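Q: Small ribosomal subunit protein uS17, please. Structure only.
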Amino acid sequence: MEENTVQTVKAAKRSFVGLVTSDKMDKTIVVTISSKKMDRLYKKYVTRSKKYMAHDENNDAHIGDTVRIVECRPLSKDKCWRLAEIIERAK
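A: Structure for Small ribosomal subunit protein uS17:
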């Protein structure tokens, strides 16, 4: 008898680089991701930003740091991202 082997392919986890805008919560940071999109009608670039809550286990990141966040399982109602690395510290 031959068994059918099913291979599941994991999708690559999304990651973003952004700026920490809040670190007031315990083990949580708020990261703002900015991107430029061209407006369809006026053909001008518009800056769009979105805030993500990310898990910071050791409270390493602080306001002004540039960080990389990676998608993970839901950790709470709003948190489904975790801190991967701190790229640059605030001056």
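A: Brief note, in case it's useful. The mean pLDDT is 94.
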